[in-house]
Amino acid sequence: MVKVVCQSGEYAYILSQSTVISEDFDSVQMYGISIIGKDSKSAVEDISDDFDSVYALFDLIVNGELCPEHLENVVEDFLSDNLHIIPFRVQQHTA
């Protein structure tokens, strides 16, 4: 089981894995994201079975210190392909 927990600002961010049984009884590993704050929390389970994509979204959410009340909208945009995740690339400066 995969579980990644990060603390950023006033929120805890959790990337979790769950097993989903499909109609033909195959098991699929799915990944979800939760945000827990002092006074609020939100979770979206079973976002995708693509760990790399969900991890990239998770990284974006943590770095942006997303509030729990916006999680569902961000995941919806991600799933509808309105949120494009661009890998972070370090630019090297030469003197």
The count of β-strands is 4
Order of helices and strands: EEEEHH
Give the biggest sheet.
4 strands, antiparallel
Q: Count every helix, treating DSSP H or I runs of 4 or more residues as helices.
A: 2
Class by alpha and beta content: alpha+beta
Described by the principal axes of the CA atoms, the overall outline is globular
- How far the N terminus sits from the C terminus, by CA atoms, comes to 46 Å
Q: How many domains make up the coordinates? A: 1
What number is the mean pLDDT? 84
Poorly predicted regions: 87-95
Strand order of the largest sheet: 1-2-3-4
What can you see in these coordinates?
The model is unreliable at 87-95 (pLDDT under 50). With 95 residues, this protein is an alpha+beta fold. The protein is built from two helices and four strands; from the N terminus they run ββββαα. The radius of gyration is 15 Å and the shape is globular. 23% of the residues lie in helices and 37% in strands. The chain starts with a strand and ends in a 16-residue tail after the last helix. The protein has one domain (3-79). A four-stranded antiparallel β-sheet has the order 1-2-3-4, with helices on one face. It has helices spanning 51-63, 71-79, and strands spanning 3-8, 11-21, 27-36, 41-48.
